[in-house]
Amino acid sequence: MVFSVKRLAAACAAAALIAALAGCGGGQKEAPAAGGGASGKIMIYTSIYPDIIDMVKPIIKKALPGLEVDWFQAGTEKVIAKMAGEMEAKKIAADALMVADPSYYYTLKDQKMLLNYASPAAKDVAIEKDKDGAWTPVRISNMIIAYNTSKLKAEDAPKTWKDLTDPKWKGKIAMPNPLMSGTAFVAAAALSEKYGWEYFDKLKANGLRVEEGNSAIQNKLLTGEYLAVMILEENILKMIETKKEPVKVVYPEDGVVVVPSPIGIMAASKNPAGAKAAVDWWLSKAGQETVVTGWMHSVREDVKPPNGAPALKTFYGKAVKTDWIKFSKEKEKYKEEFRTRVIEK
Amino acid sequence: MPKRNFSLPSFDSKTTVILLCVALLLIFTALPLLYLAASSFMSGGSFDFSNYKDVYSRSVNWRALLNTLKLSFATMVSSVLLTFPLAWLIGRTNLPGRGGFRTWLVATYMIPPYVGAIAWVQLLNPSVGYLNMVLKWAFGLDASPFDIYTMGGLTWVLTLFYSPFAFIAISRAMEKMDPALEEAARIAGASPLRTLRDVTMPLMAPSILAGGLLVFISAASCFGIPSIVGMPSNIEVMTTRIVTYVYMGDSKGIRDATALATILMLLANALLLAMGRFAGQKDYTTIGGKSTRPNIVNLGAWRWPALAAVGFYTAVAVALPLGSILLTSLIGTMSKPIGLDNLTFENWKPVIASDQYLAPIFNSLQYGVAAATVGTLLAVFISYLLVKTTARGRQLPDLLVTAGGAAPSIVIALALIIAFSGKFVVNLYSTAGILVAAYLVKYMTMAVRTISASLVQVHSSLEEAALSSGAGWLRACRDIILPLIAPSVVAGWFLIFMPSFYELTMSILLYGSETKTIGVLLYELQTYADTQNASVLSVIILAIVLIGNIILNKASKGSIGI
């Protein structure tokens, strides 16, 4: 046992060495960018997918050579749960927070947990941001409808959220659980405001299945267990581009649920200068281009949309209305209402 | 020689060791959990029951509690009913291929439950489940014969994943049983079956209870399977309710969650006490001073039907989901039917090629070994305290351990975050220590149940003989007690190691940048990549564990390993 552990350790060390060498080779070619004066260490809690973080790591290192950036990545609700635990312990380890539930930032701002920072880059952010600079949108995810093209013709696919109540989808529709997933919460709250809870009653009557998260929905859309689903745009775009799967996004005519995910600096941060530099970078053109490679939309107008997607402005105007303050204040009420109407038998 | 009887060095080492164990337990289990439980009685800085009123005035929480009880009970009963005959056939008869079956039956325990649950959903979902489609085609049915999205489906998956607890506990005890009693029954003219019913089964009662209880507690505190199988079918259980409260994201949510979790922990302990009382009424001691190996029952003509039955169960319970996972890892696209043209190693490439996978595997191995080793040591002493002493409060450590095992993972994780972020002197946050502590709190109960059940069978006369011959207590433990209970110690070690190795729910909240584990990686693959990459990692996890098991087994000439 000891022997094999040692071997594994040696293998690990070798792998780490190779990785380090490879990393150095790339890094030495270019001089560090000017203006990266930030130093020390920061910790960012985020729900951005890990492959994007891996991609960002070397780029941000080059842009801010003096700054060591650590990441904690998990789903939005898990990050929020961790934050809640740390708040109980009165020891918040995060310097900056970028999760996918805008209403949470209103809650944090109310509790004076966010640092007001007007980033110089924020002037290029084309959508609504906090006037005090407590948070700024950094990426845009969209809740859309997706369908499986090998099972369904384009003309038969649902065009609107309302179409999902059509009996022809009975038992073949699904959405992620708003009690477990941040973006699903936003979608449920926004659609209930637009169409009333009766809309979800009808979906329920039409056999709507509620799954834990977006990835479960994605897999069951591929296998054909579901024909049309409510899901995040980025999951579907990625499936199409990387795996050539037969799935397609429908941007509902009655409005996409646009979720602009903010970045904010924690008031308790021990390295606010470092966190500010990171925020500036994320909002810069370079930062936004990495966002787009992750199949999310940029908050800047000078950055092209993700591969396979139309420009944000083609659907942003008629997006489903989102009252973030109300969502923030009545989070429990929305979740409970959804639960009693849809989940409870 | 008589002098030694009056000096009490053995008593001292015994007290010290046991006190040390209790102290560790108090710090790492009692403190965080009690602090969290106590905070469920606080609202706005004062003591009251408002959280409980709030939580328990909602019918949904009562229904969730009822569902949890129903599911766990059904799972416990079906697990014992399934595994007792299996353990007997494999451990005590001349069934062909017994050793192989043992490994395979325990193998389901090596599959992370959430991965296995996904496999079963793929097999048995009513619209496009593989198995349903095969059965429809084979028997010309109009509708799918099975629907996984039901209470029955949920019980089935829970049983498959948690019955190995019962199997391990029961079969270990069966092999350490004093054969003289059975021989006596046979000599007196009882048939093998009658001997089984009247002698073997009653002797096995503590182990059956221990195994069953483990199954009950694990099923009640499981989140992965109910979330994957139960959620689409709108079946809510305690753990999904608790997670819902935690995900409200504020301190009220945490308190409400704790108000629910506290009841779950109390329930498990009440059950344990009740069973302990029941089992405690009889003297089950069976390993005497002159134990030999238990005899093997000759099945005669029944060998082949028995083989067919065991083989069929193994195929359905183990080979099918394992095959489904392996196949999923090799399928080119999930959107096309399975066929030779749709098989590829594409999904394996990113997993194997990336060196980011090695570090988490190594981390998890380390933490799993650490948790299993510390946990087993503690478990031995806790079991000894519980079973072999009359000290007052000897049940306390066992109760703490059980409370930890019954606590939902997410509650343990939060309790540890709150307790060990420096609030109470110790700061373990984002270290490997907090992960190991979490695994210990959650999984030690498995080792304690298994070890104490087999310790009950060891007669005190053996230890007394060693002590009166001049051996110290630690020496008596090492030379007499440990060898006698060795199989259950090894089983206990594995029971902690395995779930710690691929643990997900707690690790995801507790890991730091240097301490990423394989469970976290699996979660990442599952959410940002897809099920296929996650299947690849599951296959790798399984391979590591199976190979490790084989090596251990070979190196120890069959005495270590599952």
Q: What does this molecule look like?
A:
The complex is a heterodimer of chains A (345) and B (562). Helices cover 43% and strands 17% of the residues of chain A. Chain A has 345 residues and is of the alpha/beta class. In chain A, strands 1, 2, 3, 4, 5, 6, 7, 8, 9 and 10 form a ten-stranded mixed sheet that branches. In chain A, helix 2 runs antiparallel to helix 10 and helix 6 runs parallel beside helix 13. Chain A is globular. The N terminus of chain A is likely disordered. By secondary structure, chain B is an all-alpha fold. Chain B is built from 24 helices and two strands. In chain B, a hairpin with a 2-residue loop joins strand 1 and strand 2. In chain B, helix 5 packs across helix 14, helix 16 packs across helix 21 and helix 20 crosses helix 21. The radius of gyration of chain B is 24 Å and the shape is globular.
SSE order and pairing:
The complex is a heterodimer of chains A (345) and B (562).
Chain A: H1 2-27, E1 40-46, H2 50-63, E2 67-73, H3 76-88, E3 96-98, H4 102-110, E4 114-115, E5 136-148, E6 173-176, H5 182-195, H6 198-205, E7 209-211, H7 214-223, E8 228-232, H8 233-243, E9 247-250, E10 257-266, H9 272-283, H10 285-293, H11 313-316, H12 324-329, H13 331-343
Parallel strand pairs in A: 1-2, 1-3, 6-7, 6-8
Antiparallel strand pairs in A: 3-10, 4-10, 5-8, 5-9, 5-10
Helix pairs in contact in A: 2-10, 6-13
Chain B: H1 2-6, H2 9-39, E1 42-43, E2 46-47, H3 50-56, H4 59-92, H5 98-107, H6 113-124, H7 130-139, H8 151-175, H9 179-187, H10 192-220, H11 224-230, H12 238-246, H13 251-280, H14 303-330, H15 348-353, H16 358-388, H17 395-406, H18 409-419, H19 432-455, H20 460-468, H21 473-501, H22 505-510, H23 518-528, H24 531-555
Antiparallel strand pairs in B: 1-2
Helix pairs in contact in B: 2-16, 2-17, 2-18, 3-13, 4-5, 4-8, 4-10, 4-12, 5-14, 6-11, 6-14, 8-10, 8-11, 8-19, 8-21, 9-10, 10-13, 10-19, 12-13, 13-17, 14-24, 16-19, 16-21, 16-23, 17-19, 18-19, 19-21, 20-21, 23-24
